[in-house]
Amino acid sequence: MSRSRVKVSKTRLGIEKLLLVAGLAAVGVWVGSIVRTEVCQDWANWAFERKLHGQPATARQYLESWFGPRAIAKPPVAEQHLPAAPQKPPAIETGDLIGRLAIPRLKLQAIVREGAGAGTLGLALGHIPGTALPGQPGNIGVAGHRDSLFRGLGQIRKTDRIEFQTLSGSYEYEVESTGIVAPQTVSVLDAGQYPEITLVTCYPFHYVGSAPDRFIVKARLVSRDPLSQGLALESVKSAGVPEHREAQPRVRETCTAARRVFFSVSEGHSTTLVPGISLGLDWADAASQRVKAWMWVMPDRRTIWLTSQHPREPLVFYGHQDGKRREVVITNIGRTSVSGYLQLSGG
User: Fold this and answer.
1) Which of 40, 145, 244, 320 is catalytic?
2) Single pTM value for the model
3) Which pLDDT score is estimated for 90?
4) Active-site residue 40, yes or no?
5) Is there a catalytic annotation at residue 145?
6) 202, 206, 255, 269: which is the annotated catalytic residue?
7) HEC per residue, the chain
8) pLDDT at residue 149 in the model
């Protein structure tokens, strides 16, 4: 073999090794980004659930939930209890928690944070700055990567439900349309006549490289939290909700001294009855006519358990802040759901 051929063979072998290393590095970066997103989502979902129930959420507690307290045991640190001072709600900054978005039929669930930049979208779905927030009138914009958290969004269909849960209330939207637009078509985020949400991701879904278009999903609010109406009483359409879905709260004024908020909730779900009071159902037993449910009450930051509650058996409690009487009554216990009402005193 001539020297020139040996030189060519060595050069080719060197190039092949270089390409192999580059390929392995690219795969490593890709796998690393997926693992990073999954770990961050797991942590964020764990912390979100604890905050919903008024429980602290620290990195140490999260690690203990995985490895047990002995694995990271540290000497206890004395807590400092300082008097609480009234503060204005802080401005929302990039990376701040907004809530959790879910599309049950697609089995899609992800934490939503403020911002639509690469730093946010690499860890969560991003609330597009300048658009409405849950509970506000207008159009909520949420962006996500097509190859990670919004993977499968192309399978969404009209009438699918989109759930947006926040620490102050839950909101449900019904998909009305999907479309494909150019990246410059920002008018899809304009506020319309009704409260809505717009999901945005790149398109085509299997495009290699920077995708040229955007896939959008438009959905209209169908479960209205009274918070968005400034505590105004309003009837919310709830007819036609299947038993296995969470029904929409219906609010009506029964007299000048008191009012009732009617609810229907299924196992493993929760719903906001009025601002600051949420109801969740762990299980329902139609045979024994018993349930296990809970209520989260703000600003008292307390959980009230409805353990083995019977139908028509009222549970009375009083607000620590305003002293007003509240009464929860379960009127019907189904196989996987319950219905009833919350009665609020007037004044």
Assistant:
1) 145
2) 0.52
3) 56
4) no
5) yes
6) 202
7) CCHHHHHHHHHHHHHHHHHHHHHHHHHHHHHHHHHHHHHHHHHHHHHHHHHHCCCCCCHHHHHHHHHCHHHHCCCCCCCCCCCCCCCCCCCCCCCCEEEEEEEHHHCEEEEEEECCCHHHHCCCEEECCCCCCCCCCCEEEEECCCCCCCCCHHHCCCCCEEEEEECCEEEEEEEEEEEEECCCCHHHHCCCCCCEEEEEEEECCCCCCCCCEEEEEEEEEEECCHHHHCCCCCCCCCCCCCCCCCCCCEEECCCCCEEEEEEEEECCCEEEEECCEEEEEEEEECCCCEEEEEEEECCCCEEEEEECCCCCCCEEEECCCCCCEEEEEEEEECCCEEEEEEEEECC
8) 93
